[in-house]
Amino acid sequence: MTVPAARRVWAVVPAAGRGERFASSGAAQTAEGAAARAAPAKQYELLHGVTVLEWSVGRLLAESRIAGVVVAVARDDRAWEAVRERLASRKDAGARLHAAQGGASRQASVLNALGYLESLAAPDDWVLVHDAARPCLTAAELHALFAALDAGAHGAVLAAPVVDTVKRARDGVVAETVDRTGLWRALTPQVFALGALRAALEAAAAAGITATDESQAMERAGVAAVLVPGSVFNLKLTRRADLSTAARILHPETSTMRIGQGFDAHAFGAGDHVVIGGVHLPHSHGVVAHSDGDVLIHALCDALLGALGEGDIGEHFPDTDPAHRGADSRLFLRALAQRVRDAGYAVVNADLTVLAQAPRIAAHRATMAANLAADLGIAPARINVKATTTEHLGFIGRGEGLAAQAAVLLEAQARSKT
User: Fold this and answer.
1) Is the dihedral of CA 391, 394, 397, 403 positive or negative?
2) Which of 367, 303, 294, 366 is closest to 331 using CA atoms?
3) Are 228 and 309 in the same domain?
4) Residues 325 and 232 in one domain
5) The domain spanning residue 319 has which CATH number?
6) Of 270, 258, 274, which is closest to residue 387 (Cα–Cα)?
7) Which of 170, 173, 207, 335 is most buried (most C-beta within 10 Å)?
8) Residues 295 and 174 occupy one common structural domain
9) Could you give the C-alpha distances from 185 to 156, 211, 220, 416, in angstroms and in order?
């Protein structure tokens, strides 16, 4: 049976949630954790300069068969208007973009959007419900759903078969292996008739059931939806790390990792201490340097600049500038840490080596790592500090000076909209 052409297709995007799992994921008691908790709702995070919501809704607006898209947003949502203007300005949008007030749950938001649609659509028109945080939907997936409807389905759910071994846990340990035969992961969009979907969601709400997706409510109503194979790349952003994955899916040609290495050396001179990794260590000599001569931080700064492709520490903090005379090198590191963030990157890890016959740093490695981590705004576990001698070879072995080398890995971040 072929669905009559008059049976139109609409789309609903519930976008009133805050995404608590997303906001809290990886949010340790660090500067990076605080930034994650203060970030906007996940649908307003940026992917390649565009909000997640614009990717998700834009996919729907680009499909000419969809008569209109209703986005359900929270009453106090201050970010929506700017996004709406950008979406509405697209040549494929026209007057097809609408907004409804969201609810306290996904189910409530979808119901509100369906109520809005009743003035535009017929009860037997199809309604396609898509997650606001699924930016990687493809045209091929939409066309597969349409094909299922055209073939006579009473509803269609985009899904992916479970291919991994599935374990059931009890009290944090494996209790049993679950037979994965016939198991699918439900994706979105999911498509059902407007009137039937609204009735099913209202019945679920009346029974005190919060449906996690539309097909759950339709199952209770006795509607058997067709499973339409979808792409494993149709990712729902659940944790903050998913942003980087989505960025690679959307633009696989874009490099998201950058490596830098740095090296620095200083000769010993007059003085009674040296500074390494922000720690003042008593020593028979000081170092000859314009700033405090922190060889470890200078190497790390050069590694960061190398990863960014922005020269070296001498270009940014020249020893000809009187302002840097005797300066605390941790100030340089903090400035470059901000430069890394401004460029859209985060430090994944840093590996550093001090080369010196003396002084010994073994007892101070943890403090040095903590100092560097605090300045970079990352967890101390991401910093490794070690030391070696040169077995009395060269200027280091003769006790004429010391050196340090550093390697860092940066990862591009999907930057928050401000």
Assistant:
1) negative
2) 294
3) no
4) no
5) 3.30.1330.50
6) 274
7) 335
8) no
9) 14, 15, 19, 29
